[in-house]
Amino acid sequence: MSEAFIIEAVRSPVGKRGGALSAVHPADLGAHVLTALIDCSGADPAAVDDVVFGCVDTIGPQAGDIARTCWLAAGFPEEVPGVTVDRQCGSSQQAVHFAAQAVLSGTADLVVAGGVQNMSQIPIGSAMTAGVGLGFAEGPFAGSEGWRRRYGTQVVSQFRGAEMIAEQWGITRDAMEEFALASHQRAIRAIDSGRFDREIVPLSDVTADEGPRRTTTREAMAGLPPLAEGGRLTAALAAQISDGAAALLIASERAVRKHGLTPRARIHHLSARGEDPVRMLSAPIPATAHALRRAGLRIDDVDVAEVNEAFAPVVLAWIKDTGADPARVNPNGGAIALGHPLGATGARLMTTLLHELERTGARFGLQTMCEGGGQANVTIIERI
């Protein structure tokens, strides 16, 4: 059976909203990590079969197939095509899946996968509300008769979905604040100990992620108002709005031999599943169960898990249902501390996961993230 290998993985620092990366054009942000990816891997850019990038809200500077634009902005060969993927927050994780599937099918040998997002320039939800006069919570499906027949006219939003999870899984605000504080503490420890140094390609004199808050406390979190009246969630329990990019090089066995590349991990499993689109954010739970069954693994076989911290209850519910060891989940912090540049986060998580497996000498890493529409991708990689 053919294999799909991860050859290299790099990312930009994650910039906070209005921070040092906010003025960088998304094409230049993506071009920056693509240049570093090719340089670090030693691959011939002319040998790349395709560039698959994730991006959400592809309007304005992110429109026009940003994958293609990033590649060209990096100065690479015009004959290499690019395509942009939108599976909401999991867009660049899906980009990795498409790249690996192309390699596994034998229709490609060398594919770049990644993602880019500048949320400072293009606010979250811009594509959903542009020119149609809808509120963010109404979504693009508000006028669909078929949708109304199936799901009624209830509000559909990530905030409501997170509240529904917290209520259904019995997750208290206190537990969520403890988790959020730990995310910042883990991220700060990772930064201070240099764990991210090998994966980050500095940009605009920014060498580290801007999101982690060194001075945050449980007391400060407890003083924040809920996002909805009577709710449990606050801004401290949600992912930060951010800017960033990340990219990976996926290769076949043939490409490894032909180009003298050095594999760092192999794609052990990839899948995606859907669930309730109203509750929206709980799909990583059944998707993980499905992936483990298909891969013939147990949760205890997973040495490191990266579960996107869109909201604290998403990860806490996942831990409860899967029985995963919390110490193995997001060991270097997550999006609550590091930020969540939507279309880039999947590739950022995969990059961090790979480097953490190498740092610790572990074998299996699992990545999953909740996505709009009630979906989730799961990728399991095995360190070589």
Automatic annotation (TrEMBL):
The protein's name is Acetyl-CoA C-acetyltransferase
- E.C. number: 2.3.1.9
Q: Which GO terms describe its molecular function?
A: acetyl-CoA C-acetyltransferase activity
- Cross-referenced CDD domains: thiolase (cd00751)
* UniProt-listed SUPFAM superfamilies: Thiolase-like
Q: Which organism is it from?
A: Nocardiopsis mwathae
List residues of the Thiolase C-terminal domain: 262-383
Into which family does the record put it? Answer: Belongs to the thiolase-like superfamily. Thiolase family.
Q: Which Pfam families match?
A: Thiolase_C, Thiolase_N
Q: Where is the active site?
A: C89, H340, C370
Keywords recorded for this protein, A-Z: Acyltransferase, Transferase
Q: Which residues form the Thiolase N-terminal domain?
A: 5-253
